[in-house]
From TrEMBL, chain B:
One of its GO terms (biological process) is vesicle-mediated transport. Belongs to the STXBP/unc-18/SEC1 family. GO terms for cellular component: autophagosome; clathrin-coated vesicle; early endosome; late endosome membrane; lysosomal membrane. The keyword Protein transport applies. This is Vacuolar protein sorting-associated protein 33A. It comes from the Eukaryota. It is found in: Cytoplasmic vesicle, Autophagosome; Cytoplasmic vesicle, Clathrin-coated vesicle; Early endosome; Late endosome membrane. Plays a role in vesicle-mediated protein trafficking to lysosomal compartments including the endocytic membrane transport and autophagic pathways. Believed to act as a core component of the putative HOPS and CORVET endosomal tethering complexes which are proposed to be involved in the Rab5-to-Rab7 endosome conversion probably implicating MON1A/B, and via binding SNAREs and SNARE complexes to mediate tethering and docking events during SNARE-mediated membrane fusion. Keywords: Cytoplasmic vesicle, Endosome, Lysosome, Membrane, Protein transport, Transport. It is a peripheral membrane protein. Pfam families: Sec1.
Length: 114, 599
């Protein structure tokens, strides 16, 4: 369980590797929840990196919530939707988030759509 | 300047004087002019012991803050470091000393507060600078007098250390502090306690007492009873939003070392001719203690009663100013003039507190504040505690401050004796997705200290505790309180209720409930030399020292003061603690943010 303390200190790729060992430790300790969460975290990091390379938006290190907000605010609705489905974000929270970021952008057209 | 320390039942100024004497002795040891290099954290607490003027009398000419590199040059003979015994600070000191000018030999001294540590000295030795120090000494500063009835150790992370890191150093300091107190105020005949930490402290005290056997102090005991309470026993109270005036100031602006920093806009001096062109940008700093007559009067009131008290005071003051028209004779005018300074001070403090009250009111009338208060009160009365709260969901969705969320979730968990696994996981997932996965460490910590937990098969004890101890009073009277529950507008702090029951009718009556709360409860007696037994006058009150291990909130203090003033209570309370806390600072001390440590 102590691996998780160390992974934050490292940057870049080493992080994902360390997270993986944290996951292993969690499974050993039968801590299902933490293991699943950490796996999610790795998935998010990979997703963020991919998008960073493709779109040039700074994303790595953001929380899932902030990532979706950023995506919506630059008009990458498809990607945001994808995260919403992948991570099974509760509807209510996603709508709140979508409403807020679209309103901030004053993107009324997109708002009309749902 | 320290008049607020006299007014309590017990003269805490004796303690302060003792602390000042030690400090003077140390300063005189390093003869000649000197500069003090401060560990920044210590400047606040030290300000409560000694003002700059005292240091100056002992040839202190310069003061610096401890930081890497070189010490700013100053024409002094001695450099004195005032530091907490922490390894990372030793490294800085070593750097300071190493980069010192060799042509200008100066003497170095270290004063460790509150204890010297071998580990730190070892570190200095490793760095090759240990021999540069002429004096290495410790300055025992455990309990710092804050107010006429309040002592604090200002040991920030004590709760975290005891419950998370299994480090009981702060408990040792607490026990030592109590020994110092007993040396000055006499042996405390009766000790009660509840909780693991309380047990530890009591054991250490009794052991220290045995070691010093024979050197019994011949002082008439000032305190009749000592009550040690572990914060663990009452996790709920600090999570709730405090509703006394002082409590709200602390919740909203934060009080550190008896000072509060306020946004300057409200206090801009309206000077004629300047047209408000230079508004002060520095936050306004205000000292808060019972030396200020008005503040002493309103600090412990429920905020809803503060407005009325302020307007009443305003009337009295303006009436007093009106009196000058009635002054006919020279004698009357003279008398009026002699009162002027006092009246002007009163008017100044009235203006300050009216401004603060306005600032607070802006927040308390907001919808947000009201909504979360409603949810808190629902949890405390046991409404819907077993499922996920829609209010918390909404707050997370809107990304409200994380600490607010954590306070609410923890509160629900405490009131429900743990959350259903499904609900707990749901909250955790929501929090991690919204605020970032890094907070998994924080959640882990909260689970470890018991603030968050999955429901066990055991039934929920909280409703029983609530009913037996009358923790919820439906008709709390905020204006003219008749019960301690007024400090949270309905909720009576568990810790204070325990204190109240102990005084009357005694803990035996609530044995069942005590068993439900974590940790052992116990009673010890200490021998007081014969001839020193106090003969109580009829009608004389008992004095109890309540020591909160792991922190105390201003609202709890207010509740204890209220008990002291109640006519038939028969007991007066002095409060000591490891740290003055509120829900926010408390939860913060339990958080782990790995990113903060990044270079």
């Amino acid at each position: 369980l102590y691996v998780k303390a160390s992974y934050k200190e490292q940057r870049l790729e080493a992080r994902i590797a360390l997270l993986q060992s944290a996951v292993d430790e969690y499974y050993k300790a039968k801590n299902e929840f933490s293991a699943k969460t950490t796996e999610d975290e790795m998935r998010l990091l990979r997703f963020q990196r991919k998008l960073e390379e493709e779109k040039g938006e700074l994303l790595v290190g953001f929380s899932l919530h902030d990532t979706m907000t950023t995506l919506l605010s630059v008009g990458l609705h498809k990607h945001a939707e994808q995260l919403y489905k992948d991570f099974r974000v509760p509807d209510k929270r996603f709508w709140w988030l979508k409403l807020k970021s679209l309103a901030e952008k004053e993107d009324w057209e997109e708002l009309e759509k749902f | 300047m320290a008049s607020h320390l006299f007014c309590g039942r017990v003269n805490l100024n004796i303690l302060r004087e003792a602390a000042r004497k030690d400090l003077r002795e140390f300063l005189d040891k390093c003869s000649g002019s000197k500069a003090i290099v401060w560990d920044e954290y210590l400047t606040g607490p030290f300000g409560l012991i000694a003002q700059y003027s005292l240091l100056k009398e002992h040839e202190v000419e310069k003061m610096f803050t401890l930081k890497g590199g070189r010490i700013p040059s100053a024409a002094v003979k001695n450099i004195v470091f005032f530091v907490r015994p922490r390894l990372e600070l030793m490294d800085i000191i070593a750097e300071n000393v190493a980069s010192e000018d060799k042509l200008q030999p100066r003497e170095f001294h270290i004063l460790f507060v509150p204890r010297r540590s071998l580990l730190c000295e070892q570190r200095l030795k490793e760095k090759g600078v240990l021999n540069s120090f002429t004096n290495i000494d410790e300055y025992i500063l455990d309990l710092i007098p804050y107010d006429g009835d309040l002592l604090s150790m200002e040991s920030e992370s004590s709760f975290r250390e005891c419950n998370l890191e299994n480090d009981q150093t702060s408990l040792y300091h607490a026990a030592k502090g109590l020994m110092t107190l007993q040396a000055l105020y006499g042996t405390i005949p009766q000790i009660f306690g509840k909780g693991e930490c309380a047990r530890h402290v009591a054991n250490m005290m009794l052991r220290m007492k045995r070691e010093f056997a024979g050197s019994n102090t011949q002082i008439l005991p000032v305190f009749d009873t000592l009550l040690l309470l572990d914060r663990n026993v009452d996790l709920l109270t600090p999570l709730a939003t405090q509703l006394t005036y002082e409590g709200l100031i602390d919740e909203i602006f934060g009080i550190t070392n008896g000072y509060v920093k306020l946004p300057p806009e409200k206090f801009a001096q309206k000077k004629q001719g300047e047209g408000g062109k230079d508004l002060p940008t520095e936050p306004k700093k205000l000292q808060l203690n019972s030396a200020e007559e008005l503040y002493a009067e309103i600090r412990d009131k429920n905020f809803n009663a503060v407005g009325a008290a302020l307007s009443k005071k305003a009337k009295i003051i303006s009436a007093a100013f009106e009196e000058r028209h009635n002054a006919k004779t020279v004698g009357e005018i003279k008398q009026f003039v002699s009162q002027l300074p006092h009246m002007q001070a009163a008017r100044g403090s009235l203006a300050n507190h009216t401004s603060i009250a306005e600032l607070i009111k802006d927040i308390t009338i907001s919808e947000d504040f009201f909504d979360s208060l409603t949810v808190e009160q629902e949890f405390m009365t046991g409404v819907d505690t077993d499922k996920a709260s829609t209010y918390i969901e909404d707050c997370i969705a809107q990304k409200d401050p994380l600490i607010k969320i954590l306070r609410l979730v923890c509160m629900q968990s405490v009131c429900n004796n743990g959350l259903k696994q499904k609900v707990l996981d749901y909250y955790k997932k929501e929090i991690l997705q919204t605020y970032g996965y890094k907070h998994i460490l924080t959640l882990k910590n909260l689970e470890k200290v018991g603030l968050l937990k999955p429901q066990s098969t055991m039934r929920n004890n909280y409703p029983t505790i609530r009913k037996t101890l009358k923790l919820w009073m439906e008709d709390a009277n905020e204006q003219n309180p008749n019960d301690i529950s007024y400090v949270y507008s309905g909720y009576a702090p568990l810790s204070v209720r325990l204190t109240q029951v102990l005084a009357r009718p005694g803990w035996r009556s609530i044995e069942e409930v005590l068993k439900m709360l974590p940790g052992p409860h116990f009673e010890e007696r200490q021998q007081v030399p014969t001839g020193l037994h106090k003969k109580r006058q009829p009608g004389e009150n008992r004095t109890t020292l309540v020591f909160f291990l792991g922190g105390v909130t201003y609202a709890e203090i207010a509740a204890l003061r209220f008990l002291s003033h109640m006519e038939d209570s028969g007991t007066e309370y002095i409060i000591a603690t490891t740290k003055l806390i509120n829900g926010t600072s408390w939860v913060k001390s339990l958080m782990d943010n790995p990113e903060e440590n990044l270079p």
